[in-house]
Amino acid sequence: MRNTFLTLLAAGIVAVGCSSAKKSTSMTTASSKEGWIKLFDGKTTNGWHTFNKSTAGDAWKVEDGAITLVKAPGTTGGDLVTNEEYENFHLKLEWKISPKGNSGIIFFVKEDPKFSQTYLTGPEMQVLDNEAHADGKIHKHRTGDLYDLIASSSEPVKPVGQWNLAEIIANNGKLTFMLNGVKIVETTMWDENWNQLVAGSKFKSWADFGKYKSGRIALQDHGDQVWYRNIEIKKL
User: What is the pLDDT of residue 58?
Assistant: First the structure.
């Protein structure tokens, strides 16, 4: 009887120990992700809608844990935007582009019926097949560029069809782009230099471009298939 009791006691101690270990691992995982908010659950477009619409267009689908744009006759897309606006943030996501494809990550987007497109207000981190798309031949229009404003300092982009990790960090006017762990763009928004950049770009006559200090984040519908996954944001 005594041996049976000791055996049960030992088993209980082991079980508690295992439970504690699992709890500790879970807490460590939670701690390492502290402050990060998932913008995409990997299964639905919940938390997103088409710009100036109430729901996501049916051309935006979720496949294999990624949001993808699949344009087909009878479907509607449009730029997909977050339900919430963000001011100071660190955005991380992975993307891959189809051959000859074009898309972009647009931020500080102001949603209002008077604006027909996200890019009328929001700057863009370009997503592109540099080698096969015509924009790849245009300075400041290549992957990772602050579109039409600043060319990326290097091009650590992976071949078409492979996943790339993009990061956009906006904090009190300081703007940083990173691609696959490499810093490729750094500038300050809303100062005199920013105003000169805009004045020398295709946006010079757009009165509201790059003016807003908070806004939605958009995944661009440029008509080509693109995939986005592991979309997370941290408010700064």
Answer: 97
Handedness of CA 40, 56, 166, 223 (dihedral sign): positive
Tokens of 64: 């294999």
Contact 131, 100 (CB under 8 A): no
pLDDT, position 10: 41
User: Which residue stretches of the chain have pLDDT < 70?
Assistant: 1-33
Residues 6+ apart with CB under 8 A from 28: none
CA angle 78, 83, 84 (to 5 degrees): 130
Token pair listed for 76: 């509607």
DSSP 51-119: TTSSS--TTEEEETTEEEE---TT-----EEESS-BSSEEEEEEEEE-TT-EEEEEEEEPP-TT-SSGG
User: For residue 151, which phi and psi values (nearest 5 degrees)?
Assistant: -75, 145
Beta strands in the chain (DSSP E): 36-38, 48-50, 60-63, 66-69, 80-82, 89-97, 102-109, 124-128, 164-171, 174-179, 182-188, 216-219, 226-235
Averaged confidence pLDDT in the chain: 89
pLDDT of 33 reads 65
Cβ(79)–Cβ(218) below 8 Å: yes
The angle subtended at Cα 150 by Cα 155 and Cα 140, nearest 5°, is 65
